[in-house]
Amino acid sequence: MKKRQAIRGSQTPTPTPSPSPIPLDPNDLAPECIRVDKVYDWVFFANKYENKNFIPDEDCRAAVSAALAAGQRVEVQTAPVDPEDVSVTGNILENGNPGRVLIVWTVPVEVTILIDGDAECSFVVRTQFTDEIMLCVPTGITNDNLNIRATQVIATSGGVLMGPDPFGPMIPLKVVLCKDVQVEFPVKLEVLAKFCFPRPNNIRVPEEKISCNLDLLEFPQQCPGLFPVDNCECQATALARNEDTIATFGTGGTADTVTGLSTLRAEICQECSLADSTFTYSFTDTEEGPTPTPTATGFQPDFSFTFNPTSIDSVTCGDDALTAVGEGTRYFDGVPEQLFYELQIFANGGEGFRLILRNTANVVIFDSGVVDALVEFDECDTFADLIGDSFDD
């Protein structure tokens, strides 16, 4: 049996480690450089095209000709068209600010011909259309930077038409295309951003070519004043249905005061975008008395009319109020008349609106006066609000 011996010398115990705090995973706000596709221009518009197409199948052509000659009922049905099936090519004819771009659309439409309700034949008609539009396409932008697509296609037919030999009966097609056109270029940016919206296709294509001198930069130069458009500083909606109105027709001593009803539906600067603005107005004369001087048509017994804007050019903001100006069409006695308008919407001291119409000589010909309405009004946040007055420097 072995005896235990004492261990000579002193023994130092192993120290217990002190606890340390849990480390932080930092996620501080810091500048970032990103690579994105910058939008140099963005247009959304729609067109309607009409053309006639022959029946490609010879037997179907003969059957339709015989049915038409016999007085049978011949109908044409069109299948819904998927916008993804629309093929499109864009070609920059001329770079510039703005420049000229040619777009070719090819729309496949599946057509079925029915004779007395029974399907006789089906085939695909490929209709082709072109657009020539003005876009911001500075030097450095190529066809590869055009992002063009159809967002909606509506195809209809009005029936079968008799056509000349040797083509036989012709099929009329109507195609409505809703189009989205963007000009994009990859850039590296450090940005403060807001949502932007497409502008209307409102730049007329000139007959003569435009020559623009552009300085060469690392990235193509943006088109100042063209896109992106400025935000509205405020927005408002107004709704009035048959509200009592004491309106003034004319100016000065020849003016007529007429009692009636006003109906207005206005949406100005929705989403703080001037392009997202619209309104309609109608005035109904309820006054019993002498009728106005008869017009050429003699249909209108009173002062009633409707007014629709053709453009909303600018919006000015005030204290819980805004004023929209532009041009529009008044339909009085069934005859259209181009006028300038000033629409005031206010939520201060009572909610309501006032519509003033002027002729091309800038003479007031209608004033609704103040009319009660349901009004929603709000301010829009702009870059100047966030950054301060130095933003414009």
- Count up the domains: 2
Radius of gyration: 34 Å
The ordered string of helix (H) and strand (E) elements is EHEEEEEEEEEEEEEEEEH
Mean pLDDT value: 83
Helix content: under 10%
Which structural class should the secondary elements be placed in? Answer: mainly beta
| Main sheet strand line-up | 8-9-10-11-12-13-14-15
Number of helices: 2
Beta-strand percent range: over 45%
Major β-sheet annotation: 8 strands, antiparallel, barrel
Core attributes:
393 residues, mainly beta, Lipocalin, four-stranded antiparallel β-sheet, 51% strand, flat
Architecture overview:
This protein has 393 residues and is mainly beta. It has helices at residues 58-69, 383-387; strands spanning 34-54, 74-78, 87-94, 96-115, 118-137, 146-157, 170-189, 234-249, 256-268, 278-285, 305-318, 321-332, 335-346, 352-358, 364-367, 371-372, 374-379. The chain folds into two domains: 37-189, no CATH class; 234-379, Lipocalin, CATH 2.40.128. The chain has two helices and 17 strands. The strands form three sheets. An eight-stranded antiparallel beta barrel has the order 8-9-10-11-12-13-14-15. Strands 2, 3, 4 and 5 form a four-stranded antiparallel sheet that branches. It has a three-stranded antiparallel sheet with strand order 1-7-6, with no helix packed on it. A hairpin with a 2-residue loop joins strand 11 (305-318) and strand 12 (321-332). The longest helix is centred in the first third of the chain and has 12 residues, at 58-69. The protein starts with 33 loop residues before the first strand and ends in a 6-residue tail after the last helix. Residues 210-214 and 294-300 have low confidence and may be disordered. Residues 1-27 are annotated as: Disordered. Residues 14-24 have a biased composition (Pro residues).
